[in-house]
Amino acid sequence: MAKDSPQRTAARRGESRGTALSRAAEFGHEAMVKLLIETGQADLESRDDLGYTPFAHAASGGHEAVVKLLLETGQVDLESRDNLGCTPFAHAASGGHEAVVKLLLETGQVDLESRDNFDSTPLSDAAGGGHEAVVKLLLDTGGVDLESKDEQGYTPFTHAAGGGHEAVVKLLLKTGQVDVNASSYYGFTPLTKAAEHGHEAVVKLLLETGQVNVNKTSLSGTALSLAAESGHEAIVKLILETGQHQHTSAQYAQCGETMHYPSQGQTLALAIFRSGEAGR
Prior knowledge:
The protein is an all-alpha fold. The protein has 2 domains: 1-114, Alpha Horseshoe (Serine Threonine Protein Phosphatase 5, Tetratricopeptide repeat); 147-280, Serine Threonine Protein Phosphatase 5, Tetratricopeptide repeat, CATH 1.25.40. Helices cover 48% and strands 0% of the residues. The protein contains 16 helices and no strands. Helix 2 (20-26) runs antiparallel to helix 3 (30-38). The radius of gyration is 22 Å and the shape is elongated.
């Protein structure tokens, strides 16, 4: 469930039309960056069309040596924000750039809980991208909110589960501080997102906690109905085997008139259960 955008894609393709320093930093050309800095004429805080500074480009690309060079000038704003509200630290976390994240953490000057225009935090971005090492670094700081929600109401744990990132899901579960039934603003939970996208290993992990409510209903249905609708038979069987599923239209009442009856997917799941295929 890692998010991307045309702006971020454009930046990676070099379509940002920045200064010479900005372009050199974007592509990780350490010697060129050093040369431009030494002229004393380079604008270290110049911004391109995307609102990226040279430092933001270096962090976003995971160019550790360039990030270090720019930090050593003492003239870069570590909390500068681009047009999407992302900081250099958020870019590094989102890209899974462990070395750069570590370097920035060591400065003690980055906001671990900075939120972009989508209300996403560095932890959410790292978790959604499946970047286990970065997630671990952030957790080790003790300064991140594991239950922060973005503009859609997704927590870092939901992003990890929905993206099928088993290692990150395990890491977050080990903290004992995540709500395994956290609901988004449309009722989606880690289980419903994992089931919908066919992430069997993650669904199994969630069910093994013994804490998930398999009957929580999102705008699109329950984990069971979403898995069945998408044809994820192994996941349907896993959920049926818990013996906790319900096949009542009442669970849909909260989602509006279009949800008063079981979906085609849930009907399929019921057929599988009745045929005796589940649990074999």
